[in-house]
Amino acid sequence: MMGNLIAFREQLGDTRLAMPEPLSREAKDGIERLASFPTTRDEAWKYTRLARVAALQLSPLAHYQQPEPSECSETIDVIFEPHGWFCAAPVEGLIIESAGNLAPEDWQACTTSGHVQYLNTLAAQGGACLTIKAGYEIPKPIRIIHRAKGENFAMVLHHQINVEPHSKVQFELLYEGQGQEAYANILVDFFIAESAHVHVDKWQNTQGTHYGFYNERIYQERHSTFCLHTLTVNTHFTRNDVEVFSQGEAAHTKLYGVFLGGENHLIDNHTFVHHMAPNGSSDENYRGVMKGKAAGVFNGKVKVYQHAQKINAFQSNRNLLLSSAASINAKPELEIYADDVKCSHGSTTGQLDALALFYLQARGISKEKATEMLVGAFCAEVVESVQSKHIQRAFAAYFSS
Amino acid sequence: MWRVFFGVVMAGYTENELAEDLNKQEYRYGFVSDIASEVVPAGLDENVIRWISEKKQEPEWLLDFRLKAFAIWQSMKEPEWAHVAYQKPDFQAISYYAAPKQRKKYESWDDVDPEMKETMTKLGISLEEQQRLTGVAVDFVMDSVSVGTSFKAKLAELGIVFCSFSEAVQEHPDLVKKYLGTVVPMTDNYYSALNSAVFSDGSFCYIPKGVRCPMELSTYFRINAGGTGQFERTLVVADEDSYVSYLEGCTAPQRDEHQLHAAVVELVSLARAEIKYSTVQNWYPGDKEGKGGVFNFVTKRGLCETQSKISWTQVETGSAVTWKYPSCILKGDHSVGEFYSVAVTNNFQQADTGTKMIHLGKNTKSTIISKGISAGNSQNSYRGLVQIHAQAENARNFSQCDSLLMGSECGAHTFPYIECKNAGAQIEHEATTSKIGEDQLFYCQQRGISEEKAISLIVNGYCKEVLNQLPMEFAVEAQKLLSISLEGSVG
After folding, report:
1. In this prediction, does ipTM exceed 0.95?
2. Which of A382, B17, B80, B170 has most Cβ atoms within 10 angstroms of its Cβ?
3. Which alpha helices (DSSP H) does B58-133 contain, by range?
């Protein structure tokens, strides 16, 4: 029996959010049923060991009241730190409020599953609730910044983002800062209404022994589009779960990602796309580069429901292993119950093309520089379509350092 | 007799005979031979195992092996991770041993029970025909005891041992003892533990050093007595520098209650040896409502030493539930593993099949080609593992899993696991799922080919890559099976 989940949940304290009763009950029962942290015998955690997480000693949680103002002219910033949060003045068509102000009925119906989401439901300290009004295009990107700071802290947040019909918005989700023996469990729900368009760029670069669990749940209505870029560099422990419920007809989803790991890092990317209505599409492209003793995981699942005909689902996962102690575990899955579909996936794992390296070296470029160039090119396909200039710059800076 | 002439009449077959076969697509091997069987009462405990062991006059060590496996099995739980749903078999309701009652050894072919001969003729595999015309040595297993082994003398000249498992236990105990359970340990999984405890009979094959087996070795399995499970144990050992091609074909008669088939196949390919193992599986799949049918829970695995090769080819069209992963452990440097599979499911069949390629040695190579076809209300899953261990320098893998869907009620799923711990490895995996292209169908129909025939043509083309790996005779049989299995699935 590994890691007592009930004790872990108790040290996080109770949630400050008024969650709907069925969800709380589901989470409570779930924690009691599981009783301990999942082990590698559990399919969803097959390659990710949680012993270190279970052993974390966390100090009591802070709780987030009303935000203090934050100023930035280029973006609309919502900043979360372990002991407070800051929020920019909203613009026309955008409502920002504290998730603590939401009544149980304001939380849009959704289910929870797995210990990470259960813990979030039971212990979330706060979060932001953003609403993009129908027909508005928000002129500036909205940044939700999570800044780790200090030791032994826990940051358990639940954001809800409602994107009303015919609106358009761009988000940046940032996970930065430094934490020692710290825990983050951040859940973001996107409810994307008819013909709304959402673009999200996600940047993860936390320093120190910071254990991050990040869940995004996306509910898409008809003719909506959702595009997510997940860039994870150099984090000690990161687990991303992206779950898309493509509920409306002709909804389109793009999930792109780059994950670069070094030292003894672990980066685990799980995606799950539910195609529940016809004529939709999904396009996934994840690139992993592992150095040192890093371990990378990619698990991408596509499920096409029985009446969801004419679905076009594509998934590509390519990985580079740059050192002998690094490892990659990939599991691209397809579960198809409709016949008139086009679904495919490809997954490769290998190393840099020796000929290309030689070519560059023959022209006087050092091996390190040549490797950097080739890895840069390998990631470029994903990084180029990131809309956030800030994240592109951060990635380039990380890369050349 | 088509087997004999297929080389000449194949084209004629696909045009005319196919149509004929499609008309009588009821399960053709669904008859029950009326041979009095000696059956142990249903149920499983230590006494039953002792009874089986005594009946077969087994040595002490084998009884110990069985009892140990039984103890392990009792501590295990039935696996539930496969993508199949079925009523779990009641292991206490199964009879674990059934042997045709005639216990005397057959001196000559004439001594064999005429009814049994009749059965074989219906199956189209009479030993005489096989012996005279095709040059294939058949070890025919009816229920659990091998009743006829041919070409033995010829093989013996080369030092090749090809006999029933019980015979091998008596005559070559050292070989059996040395290799039994080395590739599939009894602790491996629930069904391999069960098999290790109660296996009734099976085939044993040993190819000595440097010998190239001159003919295809073949075994036909057939579940016969009602309510009996069949627990086959196959062990093929190819000693250094040898080569063998082994065929396994299955047909089972029509039964209403579910029957359990939990076999274990172990292959050992020593240095520079090569084993080619081909299977055509056509157990009774259940009727159109999903009633009845065989549960096929099989553990197949091969061990490759230095520079050796194991190639699995399978055509799976039968069984109500299939749970089968022929695998290769590439232990030796430069060893090669291959897996070619066509799995067809129709009506309410469920298949969860695939392979495991475990790369341990340097410069090891593996290829996986899997073609799934699902029709009717069936579920067809590919589940595979490619594992590159840290010491496996320069390992190579290529996997391709394609699924074809026919009808909106069926499902096709892919669950590949790729685990890589070596930076020198190169792994490629690709999978596609789609239905038969309307443009392809249209093209064929426009040229006067009926829809049904066009589908048959396209499906055959789709599976060609795998069928090409089968020995000729099997390839034709497989092609025929494919068409029959899919009949009526497209309207």
Report:
1. no
2. A382
3. 60-74, 114-123, 127-129
Per-residue pLDDT reduced to its tens digit, B65-83: 999 999 999 898 888 888 8
- Test A327 with B403 for CB contact under 8 angstroms: no
Closest C-alpha among A110, A101, A99, A117 to residue A22: A110
SS3 B64: helix
Q: Are B243 and B208 in contact (CB under 8 A)?
A: no
Chain A residues with CB under 8 Å of B409 CB are 306
The Cα–Cα gap between A289 and A319 comes to 6
Phi-psi region of A74 (alpha: psi -120 to 50; beta: other; left: phi over 0): alpha
Give residue-wise pLDDT tens across range A85-141.
888 887 888 898 888 888 888 888 677 888 899 999 988 888 889 999 999 999 899
Facing B431 at nearest CB: one of A327, A341, A345: A345
Tokens standing for A281?
């599409």
- How far apart are the C-alpha atoms of A60 and A281, rounded to whole Å? 44
Those residues with Cβ within 8 angstroms of residue B396's Cβ, 6 or more apart along the chain or in another chain: B364, B365, B366, B425, B426, B427
* Confidence band, pLDDT 50/70/90 cuts, at residue B328: very high
Query: Alpha-carbon distance A246 to A230, whole Å?
Result: 19
- Where do the DSSP E strands lie in B256-349? 259-261, 264-269, 274-282, 294-304, 309-316, 321-324, 327-330, 336-345
Rounded Cα–Cα distance for residues B340 and B369 (Å) = 5
pLDDT tens string B161-188: 888 888 888 889 999 999 998 999 888 8
- Return the CA Rg of chain A: 21
What is the chain A residue with the closest CA to B398?
A348
Residue B115 to residues A69, A215, B111, B120, B143: CA-CA distances in angstroms? 92, 66, 11, 9, 14
Q: How far apart are CA A298 and CA A331, in angstroms?
A: 6
A348 touches B at CB < 8 Å: yes
The two three-digit tokens of residue B98, written as one number: 């059934």
The domain spans of chain A are: 5-353
| Cα distance between the two ends of chain B | 32
| Minimal-distance CA residue of chain B relative to A342 | B434
Cα distances from B342 to residues A76, A147, A240, B313, B373, in angstroms, run 56, 53, 36, 8, 8
Global pTM? 0.84
Q: Report the residue of chain B nearest A301, measured CA to CA.
A: B415
**Nearest partner of A341 among B374, B316, B451, judged by Cα:** B374
Query: Lowest mean pLDDT: which of A65-69, A299-303, B235-239?
Result: A65-69
Mean predicted confidence (pLDDT) in A250-256: 95
Asked whether the beta carbons of A317 and A345 are under 8 A apart, the reply is yes
A351 interfaces chain B, CB cutoff of 8 Å: yes
Answer whether B408 sits within 8 Å of A309, measured CB to CB. yes
B99 Cβ partners below 8 Å, 6+ apart? B37, B38, B55, B143, B144, B145, B200
- d(C-alpha A259, C-alpha A319), whole Å: 9
Write out the two tokens for A22. 């069925």
Over residues A366-379, the mean pLDDT reads: 91
Residue B295: closest CA among B41, B86, B42: B86
d(C-alpha A101, C-alpha A98), whole Å: 6
Exposure pattern of B428-450 as b/e (b: 16+ CB <10 Å)?
bbbbbbbbbeeeebeebeeeeee
Which is more confident, B225 or A364?
A364
